[in-house]
Design a protein that fits this description.
The chain is mainly α. The protein has 13 helices and no strands. It is 61% helix and 0% strand. Helix 4 packs across helix 5.
C-alpha cells in the first residue's frame, strides 16, 4: 500500500477500481468519435475535418472559457503548442454554454443510436443509478476536471446519467493520475515514452500528442539515464515497476467514489456495463490502439 493513502476494503482493491475505469471509459470516450458529435460541433462552427477542435471544446467546456495555459496543465499529455493552437480559437467559435448544450445533445443522440433497444432497459437504468451513486460521492478537492463536470446539472435520461457519471469518475481518476505521474517524477512526454516502453501502445499511437522527434528522443534519454528504459526503448524491470507504481497510486487515488458501494454492487455494475460497452466498442468508432493503456494489466501484488 502506498504511504499516506487510506486502506481499501475488499470491494475496492486497485484491480477492481481499474476494471470499473476500463468499463466506464468507452462510454465516456464515445463523445469524441461519434458522428453525432461531429454534427453538433459543425453546427457551432467548428472545423470537423479532424476531431481535435470538438475534443478540446467538448472536454474543456465544463471549465468555462478558460485560457489555453490552464487547459495545457490539465490535458497533460498534449504538447503546449497543440493545446494553444486549438483552444485559442475554441471560445471565439462558440461560448462554453453552447458547447455544453451541443455536447449533451451529441451524447444523447450517439447513445440512442449505439444502444438501440437497450436504451430503455431496466438494466441500463440500474447501471446508471449505481454509477451515479459513485459519482455523487466523488470528492473534488484538487480535482479540477472532476469538479467542473460534477457542478453541471444531471441529465434526466438513464443513458445521459450513465454518461455523466462515467465522465465525472473518469475525470476524477485522470486528475489523480496526473498527481501520480508527478509523484513519480514523470513529465508529460516522459509519461508517454514510458507508456510505450511497457507495451501499452506502439510509439505511433502517441504521435497525435504531437511531441517532436527531438522531444521524444530527449525524454527517452532521460528515462534511460534513470535505468527505466533499455537500449531498444523497452521498459526495464525498474521501468515496469515504476509504471506499475504509478498505476497503483492512480487506482488508490480513484478509490474514494466507490466507498459507498459494496462488493456486490460494484460487481453488479461491472456486469451491467459489459453489454453497453460491447455495443460501443462494436461500432468501431473508438481507436483500436489508444494512448491510455486501457487494456494493460498490472501486477499490483508484486
Amino acid at each position: 500500500m502506498t504511504s499516506g493513502t487510506p486502506p481499501h476494503d475488499g470491494a475496492h482493491t486497485p484491480a477492481t477500481i481499474r476494471q470499473l475505469w476500463q468499463l466506464l471509459e468507452p462510454i465516456h470516450a464515445l463523445v469524441y468519435f461519434a458522428p453525432e458529435s461531429y454534427d453538433e460541433a459543425g453546427s457551432l462552427g467548428y472545423d470537423t475535418a479532424e476531431r481535435w477542435p470538438l475534443y478540446f471544446a467538448f472536454r474543456a467546456a465544463p471549465l468555462g472559457e478558460v485560457a489555453p495555459a490552464l487547459v495545457t496543465s490539465l490535458f497533460y499529455s498534449f504538447t503546449p503548442s497543440m493545446v494553444e493552437s486549438y483552444v485559442a480559437q475554441t471560445w471565439h467559435t462558440a461560448p462554453a454554454e453552447r458547447v455544453l448544450t451541443a455536447r449533451a445533445s451529441a451524447v444523447d443522440r450517439a447513445l440512442r443510436s449505439v444502444l438501440g433497444g437497450r436504451i430503455d432497459s431496466p438494466e441500463l437504468a440500474e447501471a446508471a443509478q449505481l454509477a451515479r451513486g459513485a459519482a455523487e460521492a466523488t470528492p473534488t478537492a484538487g480535482r479540477p476536471l472532476a469538479a467542473a463536470n460534477a457542478a453541471l446539472p444531471w441529465p434526466e435520461t438513464p443513458h445521459g446519467v450513465l454518461w455523466h457519471a462515467a465522465t465525472i469518475l473518469r475525470e476524477h481518476r485522470g486528475d489523480g493520475h496526473l498527481a501520480a505521474l508527478q509523484a513519480h517524477h514523470l513529465d508529460a512526454v516522459e509519461s508517454l515514452v514510458l507508456q510505450a516502453g511497457v507495451g501499452a501502445a506502439p510509439v505511433a499511437a502517441f504521435e497525435n500528442r504531437r511531441w517532436s522527434a527531438r522531444e521524444w528522443g530527449a525524454a527517452r534519454d532521460r528515462l534511460a539515464a534513470r535505468g527505466l528504459l533499455a537500449e531498444d526503448a523497452s521498459a526495464t524491470e525498474a521501468g515496469l515497476a515504476l509504471r506499475t507504481a504509478v498505476e497503483r497510486l492512480t487506482e488508490e487515488l480513484a478509490a474514494a467514489p466507490w466507498a459507498g458501494l459494496t462488493a456486490g454492487e460494484t460487481a453488479r455494475l461491472a456486469e451491467l456495463l459489459l453489454p453497453p460497452v460491447l455495443d460501443v466498442v462494436g461500432t468501431g468508432l473508438l481507436p483500436a490502439q489508444g494512448t491510455l493503456g486501457i487494456g494493460m494489466k498490472y501486477d499490483y501484488a508484486s
